[in-house]
Amino acid sequence: MPSNQDASMYMVPPKTPPALNIPPSNSTVSVKIIDSTSWIEVPLGSLMGPGIPGHDKLSCPSYCFLIEHGPLGRKILFDLGTRKDWENLAPSIVNIIKDHKWGLTVEKNVSEILTGEGVDLKSIEAIIWSHWHYDHTGDPSTFPSSTKLIVGPGFKDALTPGYPVNQNSQVRESDWQGRELVEVDFSASGDLTVGGFKALDYFGDGSFYIVDAPGHAIGHVCGLARVTPDSFIFMGGDACHHGGEYRPTKYLPLPKKIDLDMSSSTIKSRAFCPGSLSGAAFCDVFNHHKPDQEVYILAKNFSHDTDRANLTIHYLEEFDAADNVFVIIAHDTFLLQKEAEIDFFPRGSLNDWKAKRLDEKARWLFLKDFAEAAEKGLKQETEMGEGIILKP
């Protein structure tokens, strides 16, 4: 529970989360969040469930991060969204997108977004892929060959060579052709951990960690950036796809009262604008009726390794409960809304998130997806689909 909040505001008393034991350091990085201009629409049941009336699809952006180490003069990117010419993705994934009629639009490559704001692409030393799925890999070929591509454990064995050498591959050989392809080796860090995750200290000074977050896909990693000596941004990638997968929890139960301004909802069909709803009204929607249990669970066949994906979610929840960590997953639609008060690139950085209490402002916005059901007394479904996995 955030230290500045009263336990009495919650429906049940919050439990104390375990210590994260992040090594101390005074070294920091600047973190800017980038709206990659990707917009994706997929059936909710392909990923998670059981469904809730009014929320039958995941309509979402795909965020990236520009991480700058000022004293060292070094810049890296975490994820790239989807490439603008997405029909030039590897044919196997293009066919999946079209066959399943998934919605996908992209206005710009991240390289265009950066150069449009005066960022020299030669200054980007590395791109870190949280994982190899099309909505995160972008188009690395638009960056100079001096920019390394960093991938998680197991990537090279499972996914190289890429298309067209391997006609069935879902990644393109051109993504790393002519540049250094680096696979993270967490064993090189000995027993370094942050929270429950194995970690690699990227700059060597405690300012940015790549963390091993397996389960969703082969080689899935997250990022942990120190933005002040004692506050952090956790870049969750696809550890979760919706706030309902990792909230509420025993550490962060539902509040008794939740203010939701539906006038800024990205779901254009919303015709009502409730001022506030009780936590109890949402509990009545959920199958389990509990204020301290996640709303959604992973679809059976969605993850590469469901057990490890669930463990990753558990560890992420411990970060989410810490009052000095702001967890941002790649597809959190509600960060785009005005009440989240997020300054996207190029407007500013996220380094002052704690002073602005951005974590508190964004935390329960995902409940907008369930507000209609709560207002109308509708119930969560009891059955769910098995999901769809992207296999390498």
Automatic annotation (TrEMBL):
Protein species of origin: Cladophialophora psammophila CBS 110553
Keywords: Hydrolase, Metal-binding, Zinc
Similarity comment: Belongs to the metallo-beta-lactamase superfamily.
InterPro entries hit by this protein: MBL_superfamily_lactonases, Metallo-B-lactamas, RibonucZ/Hydroxyglut_hydro
One example GO MF annotation: hydrolase activity
Record protein name field: Metallo-beta-lactamase domain-containing protein
Domain of life: Eukaryota
Span of domain Metallo-beta-lactamase: 61-276
Protein's UniProt keywords contain Zinc: yes
Keyword Endoplasmic reticulum recorded: no
SUPFAM superfamilies, A to Z: Metallo-hydrolase/oxidoreductase
